[in-house]
């Protein structure tokens, strides 16, 4: 299947056509869709807490996708949850965000589900790559002492590998699936545990990683947000690995 990608500031390095897109601009969105004529769109964009991008941009895309008969796969976040729930968050749980970013993501989710009955809302958690993710870069900087900060020991998430996430999103895109899906790994770890796993994999001294408690930091956000992806996983050929598996220490002999 032929694919195309969009960018806001700088095009990526992958093969294929790249189109500049600003989700705040209705005319620009229409121009890109006219040029590409897609049968499906994966919205993996994020404007952080900027409402015009993360909330209204997602709403605008959902409306246009519905009008044009385009299948929409909308990537959302575990930030739509407060973390007050003692149990895991499964696909039936309703958003109760406590941050501006979570509120924007939750608003976009609601619009997508209302405007496009055939759409997919795919919630995920911390996304880890092969050294290039924000979390991995932060661990290296903290270990090197080139960045201030701390890795929280009371902030729990269910990280997913970017390759697993991409494969699962593509699988959902090509299927007849619709509704809410959870795409997170099965391992619930604190941000400090995650940092330790990254450090061990990359041969860093994990004892150099500063620790702290989110509860003491004054930063908003849920403390324990554990996505339950078991129902989604049963319908996927793609296996969503846990952080303890995909961050195993690399074999130097390979």
UniProtKB/TrEMBL annotation:
Any Pfam family matching the protein: RmlD_sub_bind
Stretches assigned to coiled coil: none
Q: Where are the transmembrane segments?
A: none
Concerning InterPro entries, the annotation shows:
NAD(P)-bd_dom_sf (IPR036291), RmlD-like-bd (IPR029903)
What is the name of this protein?
dTDP-4-dehydrorhamnose reductase
Report domain RmlD-like substrate binding positions: 19-206
Organism, scientific name: Streptomyces humidus
